[in-house]
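[recover] target loaded
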């Protein structure tokens, strides 16, 4: 008699609830992880394509300089005292180059 009371009633629709939960998790992952990463990659590609001679850039290795020459997939930056270094275009850091290229505001 007591075992009948303690048994849980069979629940219907657990498969649907699981499917809805999994679907919501996929949507959340898309909007919070995948989509922003795709946008960042697209912005980086646009930035690299828009580089021109004379732009100030910062590489992912931290080298600061001004672009002196541009080839198909490489560019040469001129660093302090006329030194020149060749880098791959993919070595430019978008996050570091944007603030370096804009002049500092005087207070």
């Amino acid at each position: 008699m007591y075992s009948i009371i303690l048994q849980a009633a069979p629940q219907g629709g657990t498969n649907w609830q699981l499917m809805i939960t999994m679907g919501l998790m996929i949507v959340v992952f898309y909007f919070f992880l995948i989509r922003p990463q795709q946008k960042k990659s697209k912005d980086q590609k646009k930035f690299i394509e828009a580089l021109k001679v004379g732009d100030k850039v910062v590489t992912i290795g931290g080298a600061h300089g001004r672009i002196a020459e541009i080839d198909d997939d490489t560019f040469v930056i001129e660093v302090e005292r006329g030194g020149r270094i060749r880098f791959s275009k993919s070595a430019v850091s978008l996050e570091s180059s944007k603030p370096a290229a804009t002049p500092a505001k005087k207070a």
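[recover] notes: The helical segments are 2-6, 14-49, 94-101.
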